[in-house]
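Materials and Methods. Structural model of Apyrase. The 512-residue sequence of Apyrase from Paragonimus skrjabini miyazakii was retrieved and submitted for structure prediction as follows.
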Amino acid sequence: MECSPSKRRLLIIISVLFLVLGLIGLIILCALFALSVNVGNMNAVVLDAGSTSTKLTLYEWKDYPFRTNGAVKQIKEAREKPGISSYIDKPFQAYEKLAGPLQNLVADIPQSKRSKIPVYLAATAGMRLELIKSPLASMDLFDIIRRGLLNSGLAVETPNERIRMLSGSEEGLFGWVSVNNILGTVTEETQVAPANTVGSLDLGGASTQISFVAKTKPPSREASMDYYPLKLFGRQYTVYSHSFLCYGKNEFEKRIQGSIIGTNTNTSIGNPCLLKGYMTNASAAKIYDSPCITGTYAESVFTEKLSKPAGLERFTFVGTGNPNTCRDVVRKQFKTGSCTIQPCSFNNIHQPQVTGVFRAYAGFSYAMAHLFPNKVTGFTKSEIENAVYRFCNKTWAEVASETDPKQLEFVYNFCYDGIYILELLTNFGFKTDESWKAITFGAKINGQSVSWALGYMLDQSGFLPSESPKVQVSVPLFAALFVILFLIIIASIVCLAFAVCSSSKHSANHDF
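The predicted structure was written out as tokens:
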């Protein structure tokens, strides 16, 4: 059956129209897909102002236009010692010491892009202690650092929010985020159920943090203050997180030393937490110049404050290597007699029962790595106790002879470290062998150092607006639309060819 000339003309017009629309659509689709695939990177800098040093880290993530949190990766890092709390009496030097490392950190980024790089500084337990000791001086220090960073050439849009003190619970919370992100349980691609996430145990110099997803809800409004709602990659989590200031490894050791000294004014004082035969010179001023030792804060935490014996200035600690005596001194610093909101860890702090698996890093890891060089998890409590006691019963001469000389400046204190880790984790609620077996010890996870800074940046990335074009075409969508448009173009060409051939044939017959 032949088509009339008018129908052939209509078919040609429709075919040409669909061919043009198909080609235009294909060009637009490819252009949008190219924009969607070739998104730029976003950068940010976090300054982790700890008690002994400031760690500067440059992070990067793909700036997808409709992202929630970014898939944050560490690009570069630097460390500046000592921590900013050491500059409380000379605040201008605090930023001067950070300015050089900060500029070196972003040196590989084009100058034109640096003004868009947000910079964050968060101070942790060392500055929290300084805030107790010298509140006005601490505020001045932060003010000067803010002014310095405002002139750094980086983006500091809200100085009071981006340069501040990090609360202990926040430190624990973001440590939990870091642990789960590195392990792959909370990432852009994967978000496991909250109950299957991994708990975090962090031991710093001035504080310690425990953070995990509890099986139970907070029993009261007061208890809920330590339960934090957190939305990551579109999934909601509620994380219990609590920090104990003064229970960091270094500050707690000062507390132990003060308790051992008591009222002793001798120039030589036996220390059961040090290996037998080890001797170290000590300054009474450095031990007692801490809110964790003397003053009202120490009294509120430990129910008693320690006072420096009159006339005691410089003296020598002589190791006696007695783990039982050391453990008794350590144990007395944990108050477990009262619990207003059941259950509790210690010091009348509500804590739900520990559940699931945990990662113990930072100060938890160093002594454990020495005691168990070929094992990181699956320990029973008695297994660790036996290893710690065996080490504590060695003489310093024995340990020194079998240890790499580079490690001696740390190993001398591993008797105290081991005893403290045993007591701290027990008071955190790890009382059975099964609960201890669920802990994995290590300073790194999958080769990456664990720090709250990664979790903090991952959380903050969700509040930074994307600068990429608001276009997102996924590969499956692109493939489907490409096939549809391609078929439209082919069909249009076939119809057009048919109409033209038919018209030519009709013209030939007519001429004949």
